[in-house]
Amino acid sequence: MKRVTGIGGVFFKSPDPKRLTEWYRVHLGFDVSEWGGVAFRWSGTGTTAWSPFKQDSDYFAPSTAPFMFNYRVDDLHALLAALRAEGCQVEDKVDESEYGKFGWVIDPDGNKVELWEPPEGK
Fold first, then answer.
1. Which Pfam families is this protein grouped with (predicted)?
2. DSSP 118
3. How far apart are CA 88 and CA 79, in angstroms?
4. What is the pLDDT of residues 70-122, one digit of tens each?
5. How far is 13 from 60, CA to CA, in rounded Å?
């Protein structure tokens, strides 16, 4: 079974996400979407997201790190089952929406890692 197939996103906290996003838009040419981040399109199929979060966001909890990586996977449920069988700390919650399937595992340093199975063809 393939596990991680690419980086789906880089998410991090900022004291002022709007100011920071504007700096990246102006100085580095980021094409910021209405949702507040950037979707870098790959030359083939797929994207990598970049998005700052508010400093007080609890989206990365239980991690206390100011960042979270999102990795693309081919089969989220199979990977989460394998990680559980290997003794990893896997969150029970799985989100499924038009954006794909999302699950989370905590690495040995306590960082929350988001695993993302994109919708078919994305």
1. Glyoxalase
2. P
3. 11
4. 999 999 999 999 999 999 999 999 999 999 999 999 998 899 999 999 998 76
5. 9
Place of tokens 């979270």: 68
d(Cα 25, Cα 31) in Å, to the nearest integer?
Answer: 6
Q: What is the DSSP string of 30-47?
A: ----TTSSEEEEPSSS-E
The amino acid occupying position 80 is L
User: How do the domains of the chain map onto residue ranges?
Assistant: 4-117
d(CA 54, CA 36): 11
State the DSSP H helix or E strand holding residue 26, giving kind and residue range, or none if neither. helix 17-28
The rounded distance, in Å, linking the Cα atoms of 65 and 34 is 26
Topology of domain 4-117, CATH: 2,3-Dihydroxybiphenyl 1,2-Dioxygenase; domain 1 (3.10.180)
Amino acid found at 91: E
Beta-bridge partners for 9:
49, 70
Q: Of 13, 57, 59, 39, which is closest to residue 99 (Cα–Cα)?
A: 39
Other CB atoms within a 10 A radius of the CB of residue 99 amount to 12
